[in-house]
Amino acid sequence: MAEEKASSKSGIVKKFIIALVLIIVIALGITGVIYYLNYFGPNVTDKQEYLYIHTGATYADVYDTIKEKHMVKDTATFNWAAQNMKYTTRVKPGKYRLKPGMSNRALINKLASGTQEPVTLAFHTMRLKQQFAAYLSKKIEPDSTAILNLLDSSAYVKQYGFSTDDVYTMFLPNTYQLYWNTSPEKLFKKMYAAYQEFWTPERKQKAAAIDLSPVQVSILASIVDAEALHDDEMPTIAGLYLNRLKKGMKLESDPTVIFALNDFTIHRVLNKDLTVQSPYNTYVHNGLPPGPVMMPSINALNSVLDYKKTDYLYMCAKADFSGYHAFATNVADHLVNAHAFQKALSERHIMK
Fold first, then answer.
1. C-alpha distances in angstroms, 142 versus 172, 213, 259?
2. pLDDT tens-digit readout, 90-99
């Protein structure tokens, strides 16, 4: 009887132990599943393509952005993973691509390592520094004011060998890649490096051969670019202006007058416009203006350096509105061309 009781008691203990072990195994299994899901389970949504983390942002800022923009399905598990992975003290600014279905671990590793998406800048000929700064502010973190402050800082641009009038020549239209949180100062360094790369010893030698500095080549190229609708005409226009410079003649370029008037809607430059008092008005002042009238293209720069040698001193837009010019070596022929174009403008009622 006693043996039966002992055996029964032993069986109960064994069952209890087995049950306890099963409970522990199940609990550990559930914990493991929860742990796995919290770290490795899909959590990133398709609500946003990028997460932007501003310079100086804290983890609280990042968490609020993720929560407000519904970037993850479960913010609690993201926060738990971030705390455990020590991300709260490793926040790095930048533009980060979000892939739907990413796990908390994958997302946090990307953010903590600063593995951000590069930004592509593909700018072409822009007229004004303000337009350029506005374009940049849409692509990178700094606002247009911060960029313009450097462009307009005599002390800052002087260290690169420029003035506030001609610093715009440093920016060469091309395609560049940089990070979203690039500072204005780092942007300048990158653009200056590209500028130096463009101005090879060969190009500098070509500039010296026409008695122009690299900056002066860029200023002249900006006028050529503003005049030419067709790239294949640029070398001829450049040669014409170089002829006028050599002879000490005023350039008398309409784009410089339009720039001086700051009215880019003008289609017909009038006699009264030619007297505007501005150092950019080449009808009034000899030589080149103090700065570019637009951001010159690479084609325009090369067209000045590899200009076409002619005897042309005058040009006028063709009356057929093809975008090409009628060139002349003397005033008489030029006046004939100019009269034909003025007549064509009047016939089309283009008065300004």
1. 20, 32, 27
2. 999 999 999 9
Which of these, 307, 312, 310, 308, lies nearest to 207 by C-alpha position? 307
Q: What's the rounded Cα separation, in Å, for the pair 317 and 324?
A: 6
Q: How confident is the model at residue 343 (pLDDT cuts 50, 70, 90)?
A: confident
More confident residue, 188 or 123: 188
Q: Which two tokens stand for residue 135?
A: 């374009």
In angstroms, the CA 343 to CA 282 distance is: 24
Beta bridge partners of 175: 122
Please state whether the predicted TM-score (pTM) of the whole model is above 0.90: no
Q: Which two tokens stand for residue 251?
A: 């350039």
The pLDDT of residue 158: 96
d(CA 270, CA 254): 10
Count of alpha carbons within 13 angstroms of residue 99, beta-carbon side = 12
User: 3-class DSSP state for residue 347?
Assistant: helix
DSSP class of residue 101 equals T
Strand partners, 42: 103
- Distance between CA 7 and CA 282 in Å, rounded? 115
Domain boundaries, the chain: 50-113, 118-198, 201-347
Give, for 186, the enclosing helix (H) or strand (E).
Answer: helix 184-198
Task: Please say whether the beta carbons of 151 and 157 come within 8 A.
Answer: yes
At residue 54 the predicted structure's pLDDT band, cuts being 50, 70 and 90, is very high
Tell me the percentage of the chain whose pLDDT exceeds 90.
Answer: 76
Q: Dihedral of the CA atoms 314, 316, 318, 323 (nearest 10)?
A: 110
157-159-163-167 Cα dihedral, nearest 10 degrees: -50
What fold is seen in the domain 50-113?
Dna Ligase; domain 1 (3.30.1490)
